[in-house]
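Researcher: Can you fold this with beta-D-glucopyranose in place?
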Amino acid sequence: MRSTTKNPIVSPDSNSSRRVRTLAVDIGGTGIKAETLDERGKPITAREKIATPKNASPRKVIAVIKKLAKACAPFERVSVGFPGVVRDGVIYTAPNLGKGWAGFKLDSALRKRLDAPVRVANDADVQGLGSVSGKGVELVITLGTGVGSVIFVDGHRIHLEAGHHPFHNGKTYEDELGERALKKKGKKKWNKLVAEAINDLARLFIYDRLYIGGGNARHIKIKLPPNVKTVSNLEGLLGGIKLWEEPAPEESK
Ligand code: BGC
């Protein structure tokens, strides 16, 4: 894959057409992280992190990504995990960010600012792409500021918004398992709720495997069923590479 855009940060050496470096960006509710990966998803720069601005509008988030991109240059393409519903590079929802996202064409906005091809997908989808085996029914949930979800059938992904689905007592999964709930209820109670959620999800999706990622997966202390495992941020990074192996989405103009 070779970028057709004139990227001033691409080194002009003769090997550059064989080296495809991916800037992997993860937009979260508390931090925006980025690092550059080689073809196999191995980090070749440090992981840079800048706190998500308050009332994180598209303009503020793009300014942060520009700074991160500068610190992680050079790269030939960009993958972005976004904490809301994304279709063909266009944002539909952003529950844990600021206003102004509905209808925002994040892929084309970043393509112009970074002068490199950009793919944007939901953050849980990106984590999932790097985690699943590609066989059978695989559910992925992420536990962070929000609760993300995606299901894969033989490697084909269908984005879910289970986080905003009712869990119990009029509360959603995100109300009960998101960052605010973890802080408010404490780890012990939160772990009990995680166990309950796993039970519910198993009955609903009849998955072969469930992967649990996100920054708070590390607080899981309960014994997990054999077909359930936690996955790390490293797998999430690999998703930034896998996103480029999918058929090209419609690019927003
Ligand atoms: C959003 C999801 C996102 C998740 C994790 C939820 O609030 O609706 O789209 O994947 O947070 O960031």
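Model: Folded with beta-D-glucopyranose in place. The CA atoms of residues 151 and 157 lie 6 Å apart.
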